[in-house]
Amino acid sequence: MNIAEAPQVLESRTRDRVLQAISERGPVTAATLAEEFGLTAPAVRRHLENLVDAGLIVEREQGPAAGHRGRGRPARAYVVSATGHQALESDYDDLAMEALRFLSEEAGDDAVRRFAEQRVHELEQRYAVELAAAGSSRAARVDALVVALTRDGFAASARPVGEPGSASPFTGIQLCQGHCPVQGAAREFPQFCDAETDAFSRLLGVHVQRLATLAHGDHVCTTFIPTSTVQHATTATDTAPTSSTNTTIPTAVTRTEGSTR
């Protein structure tokens, strides 16, 4: 790289970092990004405009409660578009999808489910060691899970929801995954999402509920993890429920979707 090319390379790298940050924490405002990266507002807007023009992110207006702006136009926030998620995806090529379709046609959906469970089981075994080292606190175990997921390319984060210390079943932690390395497969084969949700339940010792997924067109995968003492922890012999069988979380919780560290 010569000296003349250096500014363009730095610009491109910063833009990639902005895209990754939006993936992890979207919907996120320009002001938040400017503070995080130590950039001026015009510099951040330039990167955002370039990403919008490239079709990698889209604008989303935040309501008054989220933006705290009072009168006037609601704050504009940004989330990664479907095209942006594809750009962030790892080398998950057509051959893998063809293999999964062949497996489904030849052996049935149950074979795909067993494959998805086996794949997640390998991750779960590694994560279990790290979560055990974090102790018995569910919050600490979630933090350890966030670190492990992020290391494996899921762009994870967590935030509390509900009233701290409350006995309400709707008090807990919201786990967000801004990227999914197998998103393409999960769109066609929901068994991957179900297997992952079940693994989270086993790792955290409590029934969790998947509220949103990238595979279904949401901008982030969101999982609700209850922390109330009212909840009953699972045991080693329990079979964790899939997201379709869990108790529905009320609107007040589901609207907290999105990751904010």
Automatic annotation (TrEMBL):
Pfam families: HTH_20. InterPro entries: ArsR-like_HTH, Carb_Metab_HTH_regulators, HTH_ArsR_DNA-bd_dom, WH-like_DNA-bd_sf, WH_DNA-bd_sf. CDD domains: HTH_ARSR. Residues 235-254 have a biased composition (Low complexity). Residues 235-261 are annotated as: Disordered. Residues 1-90 form the HTH arsR-type domain. It comes from the Bacteria. This is Transcriptional regulator. It comes from Pedococcus aerophilus.
